[in-house]
């Protein structure tokens, strides 16, 4: 049972700055079976000297700096811990500076020069000091660094930070470039003396410089390396702001960066002991193996539970539910069911309605234990037809596993809306009569009843029936379209006014109905219609002006048409009379139509001597004509030429046989 050291132990290599440094182990004792846990603490010895980053540090301090000003110095590093770590600093004797040793949050020490007596460049241009770092060993180990101070002329105003300490938090494993904090300083000087450059203070550890980057112009502190909560939980970063004067003014601030743990380490399972093979006669409860689980994360991220590895499985991925409108509030409409093959609390399921729409909480509710979905209010198909939602089924594991189920609720229609008449408008006291002319034949459409039903499907089908009429034999109504036709031709003895009551019914169960009243006037002229409308229309009817203008438009169009036709007739008559006068002026009054012949025309032929006239006579049935030539005559009044003879000179008498299908025009 002796525990021996197997190889040389280096505490700094195993644990670094962590203290105490311990190694854990477990011992199994058999017969009887017992498990013991043990821990070996590695104690530190003072085997490391403090080390400064460099052997010399140079400072520039203006002579205008007042007493009490502080100047951080580079810190020494000692990998030992406890009393063997760096404990203090010492400064060589001098008349101007004192040393102030401070302690960080993690217990490490750092030193600041404190100006006790103001510098005078004209008296002393430079100073050389020695800073010694000592640890707490016995005897103590030490390290030295030379501090060279240049005294320069004054830059009146040093930069000033808007706060001395900044605090920030950042998650471990944050990507490089992520902004951590933004420091800000101001300088009252102008020009280069007022331009500020940000940088890390001289005593900032090298590890911090590897993990963080500082923008010298903007003061933005960003992640540069890989942060690990398990390695360091808090970083204390010292920054400075310098102006660009000949003797730059310097201001200092501190940034505390808290690293937030992320669950980035999986549990590690260690099999301590395994018994194999297992005897077939092993009693129930016999230990087969010992398992231990560790997690490097902290707080809840490091808590380990044996494993909830099955999400709830619903019986189906989605549900479609059909609910009649006007339902009774509070009725169950669906039961969402799911199973989980885990055991115990890991298999205990709860049901939650995900509120996709804020109004759903007033309409639906689900029983958290059994998944029954309830309808809390009465639904209306005409208001909304479909509701879509998600039900989340979650087990009781840590962390819990959940599955979402889609639920669609469809509202089916009931026949709860009667047909509504749009025309003729049922809510007006005015009576607008449709007009039909006397003698209108059967089949003429007079008007149409227009109606709608807010229901859907078969419940919205409307049928139209003539319920009552002044003369039932005169009009008929279309069963499905509401069009009113004349059933026969209107007679003179038909009443001048007709009132029809139309019954409108839907096809739902039960049937809902309404009625519409239609007024029809039989009028010969528009004037009669206007008179009738003036008698029945109320003075405050907003549509009377529209009707008047429509009728006036019909009258004006009719008058324009009549005037146009009359003008065309007059023009045609004028042209006809003009052609007739031309015809009469070309006739000779010395010729008469002989016997049964009909006189057609007589023209002067331009190819005959002026002493001859030619006259053509056509019979209406023989299609023959005779050419009669007059004897030469002496000039005398045409009215005295009355002797038309057939026995003229033989050489001047000719018979013409021609075909005539029409009477020639005067021009012909």
TrEMBL record:
One of its GO terms (molecular function) is calcium ion binding. The chain crosses the membrane at residues 548-571. Residues 1-52, 53-161, 162-269, 315-421, 428-540 form the Cadherin domain. It comes from the Eukaryota. GO terms for biological process: homophilic cell adhesion via plasma membrane adhesion molecules. InterPro entries: Cadherin-like_dom, Cadherin-like_sf, Cadherin_C, Cadherin_CS, Cadherin_N, Protocadherin/Cadherin-CA. It is a single-pass type I membrane protein. It is found in: Cell membrane. Keywords: Calcium, Cell adhesion, Cell membrane, Glycoprotein, Membrane, Repeat, Signal, Transmembrane, Transmembrane helix. SMART domains: CA. One of its GO terms (cellular component) is plasma membrane. This is PCDGK protein. It comes from Regulus satrapa (Golden-crowned kinglet). The lineage of its organism: Eukaryota, Metazoa, Chordata, Craniata, Vertebrata.
């Amino acid at each position: 049972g002796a525990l021996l050291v197997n190889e040389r132990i280096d505490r700094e290599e195993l644990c670094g700055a962590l203290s105490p440094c311990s190694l854990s182990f477990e011992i199994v004792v058999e017969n009887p079976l017992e498990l013991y846990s043990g821990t070996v603490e590695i104690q530190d010895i003072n085997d490391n000297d403090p080390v400064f980053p460099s052997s010399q540090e140079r400072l520039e301090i203006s002579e205008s700096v007042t007493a009490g000003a502080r100047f951080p110095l580079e810190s020494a590093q000692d990998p030992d811990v406890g009393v063997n770590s760096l404990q203090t600093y010492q400064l060589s004797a001098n008349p101007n500076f004192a040393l102030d040793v401070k302690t960080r949050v993690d217990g490490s020490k750092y030193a600041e020069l404190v100006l006790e007596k103001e510098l005078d460049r004209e008296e002393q241009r430079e100073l050389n000091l020695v800073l010694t770092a000592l640890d707490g060993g016995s005897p103590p180990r030490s390290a030295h660094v030379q501090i060279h101070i240049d005294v320069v002329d004054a830059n009146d105003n040093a930069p000033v930070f808007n706060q001395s300490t900044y605090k920030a938090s950042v998650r471990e494993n944050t990507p490089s470039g992520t902004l951590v904090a933004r420091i800000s300083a101001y300088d009252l000087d102008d020009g280069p003396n007022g331009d500020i450059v940000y940088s890390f203070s001289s005593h900032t550890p090298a590890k911090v410089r590897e993990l963080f980057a500082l923008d010298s112009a903007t003061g933005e502190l960003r992640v540069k390396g890989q942060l690990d909560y398990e390695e360091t939980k808090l970083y204390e970063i010292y920054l400075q702001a310098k102006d660009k004067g000949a003797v730059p003014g310097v201001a200092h601030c501190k940034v505390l960066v808290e690293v937030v743990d992320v669950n980035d380490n999986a549990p590690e399972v260690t099999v301590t002991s395994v018994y194999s093979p297992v005897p077939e006669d092993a009693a129930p409860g016999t230990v087969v193996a010992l398992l231990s689980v560790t997690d490097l994360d902290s707080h809840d991220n490091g808590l380990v539970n044996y494993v909830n590895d099955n999400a709830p499985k619903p019986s189906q991925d989605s549900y479609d539910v059909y609910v009649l409108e006007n339902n009774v509030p509070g009725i169950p409409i669906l039961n969402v069911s799911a199973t989980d093959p885990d055991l115990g609390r890991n298999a205990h399921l709860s049901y939650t309605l995900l509120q996709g729409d804020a109004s759903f909480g007033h309409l639906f509710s689900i029983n958290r234990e059994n998944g029954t979905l309830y309808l809390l209010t009465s639904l209306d198909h005409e208001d909304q037809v479909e509701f879509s939602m998600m039900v989340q089924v979650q087990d009781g594991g840590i962390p819990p596993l959940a599955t979402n189920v889609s639920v669609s609720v469809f509202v089916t229609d009931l026949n709860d809306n009667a047909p509504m008449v749009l025309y003729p408008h049922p809510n007006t006291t005015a009576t607008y009569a449709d007009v039909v002319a006397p003698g209108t034949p059967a089949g003429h459409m007079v008007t149409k009843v227009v109606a709608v039903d807010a229901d859907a499907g078969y419940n919205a089908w409307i049928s139209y029936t003539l319920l009552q009429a002044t003369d039932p034999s005169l009009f008929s109504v279309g069963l499905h379209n509401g069009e009113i036709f004349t059933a026969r031709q209107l007679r003179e003895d038909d009443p001048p006014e007709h009132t029809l009551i139309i019954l409108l019914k839907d096809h739902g169960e039960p049937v809902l109905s309404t009625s519409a009243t239609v007024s029809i006037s039989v009028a010969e002229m528009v004037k009669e219609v206007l008179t009738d409308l003036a008698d029945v229309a109320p003075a405050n009817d907003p549509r009377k002006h529209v009707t008047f203008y429509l009728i006036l438009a019909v009258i004006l169009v009719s008058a324009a048409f009549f005037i146009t036709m009359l003008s065309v007739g007059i023009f045609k008559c004028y042209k006809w009379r003009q052609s007739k006068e031309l015809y009469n002026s070309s006739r000779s009054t010395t010729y008469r139509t002989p016997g049964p012949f009909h006189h057609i025309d007589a023209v002067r032929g331009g190819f005959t001597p002026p002493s001859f006239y030619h006259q053509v006579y056509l019979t209406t049935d023989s299609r023959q004509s005779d050419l009669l030539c007059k004897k030469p005559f002496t000039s005398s009044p045409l009215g005295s030429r009355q002797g038309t003879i057939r026995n003229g000179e033989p050489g001047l008498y000719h018979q013409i046989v021609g075909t005539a299908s029409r009477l020639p025009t005067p021009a012909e």
